[in-house]
Write a structure and sequence with these properties.
By secondary structure, the protein is an all-alpha fold. It has a single domain, classed as MetI-like fold, CATH 1.10.3720.10. Helix content is 72%, strand content 0%.
Length: 307
């Protein structure tokens, strides 16, 4: 009678081994990320804001943005009934800030994903195909880099209908060039490695090379860039809303600032109308930036980012 002395890890199937490797890799990345105090602080702040956004219908109610039947008087100072005062319609500013987190975070996330997706596609294809295609795409990228992103976004949002989709599209299609440049440089570095030449010699086509070899190697850069882009997208959304180019039917942090400006809160000294949405924008943007820097340093230790 023989006894199987093969280790359990060798007896497991390929899918089990792949899951084990992914779990081990995730645990290793989390251990490295948790050593960055600034990154943990930013992540904790984002978790708090995400929970507030998800539970907003339960905590402040879905009718908090309704102008009719507002619970307070216009521009009431903070009190026991309204911790952050009321706006020009008598609505609770605290409830509006909590509810506005849903729109601002959603727009920032979707716009960043769209921007990074466009930049990744342009960067990988321009780095892979070279020649005339790469020259044309890089000249287009340079044109977008030279033009102010905010000006292009304002122009696009002006000629289109005022909606969240317009804001997301305006931010996404004007902020991709930086990602394209970074991804193209990484693609050129990856395709200079010997195993790419072996894959081509074995019959690997363009799609195989880009999807199976280049994309996995640029994904860490894409992930870090996405985290950083969310911060910029939230600030861009707030700017467009402040300029009156956002969706007037929804509540966002930038929209609250625009309402406060129209109500004359700046000259009247109604600070409770201006400060809360401004602080939330700054805190969330800073939190995403801290997380992005921490992720960047974990995925690329050579950067030597301070902890």
């Amino acid at each position: 009678m023989t006894t199987d002395t093969t280790p359990p890890a060798m007896q497991a199937g390929p899918r089990t081994l792949a899951r084990q490797r992914r779990r081990a890799s995730a645990a290793r990345l989390w251990k490295q990320y948790s050593s960055h105090r600034a990154g943990l602080l930013g992540l904790a702040a984002l978790v708090v804001f995400a929970l507030l956004a998800l539970t907003a219908p339960l905590t402040v109610g879905s009718d908090v943005s309704s102008v009719t039947g507002a619970p307070g008087h216009p521009l009431e100072a903070p009190s026991g009934d309204f911790l952050l005062g009321t706006d020009r319609y008598g609505r609770d500013v605290l409830g509006l800030v909590v509810w506005g987190s849903r729109v601002s975070l959603l727009v920032g996330l979707l716009a960043a994903v769209l921007s990074v997706a466009i930049g990744t596609l342009v960067g990988i294809t321009a780095g892979h195909f070279r020649g005339a295609y790469a020259t044309v795409m890089m000249r287009i990228t340079d044109w977008f880099l030279v033009m102010p992103t905010l000006v292009l976004a304002i122009a696009l949002a002006t000629v289109m209908s005022r909606s969240l989709g317009t804001v997301i599209l305006a931010i996404g299609v004007t902020s991709w060039p930086t990602t394209a440049r970074l991804v193209r440089a990484q693609t050129l570095a990856v395709e200079s490695r010997p195993y790419i030449e072996r894959a081509k010699a074995l019959g690997g086509g363009h799609r195989h090379i880009m999807v199976r070899h280049v994309l996995p190697n640029v994904m860490p850069l894409v992930l870090a860039q996405t985290t950083l882009m969310i911060s910029s997208s939230i600030l861009a959304e707030a700017t467009l809303a402040f300029l009156g180019l956002g969706d007037p039917t929804v509540v966002s942090w930038g929209g609250l600032l625009q309402d406060a400006r129209e109500a004359g809160a700046i000259s009247a000294g109604d600070w409770w109308y201006l400060v809360p949405p401004g602080i939330t924008i700054a805190v969330v943007a800073l939190a995403f930036t801290l997380c992005g820097r921490a992720v960047e340093s974990v995925l690329n230790p050579r950067l030597g980012v301070a902890r």
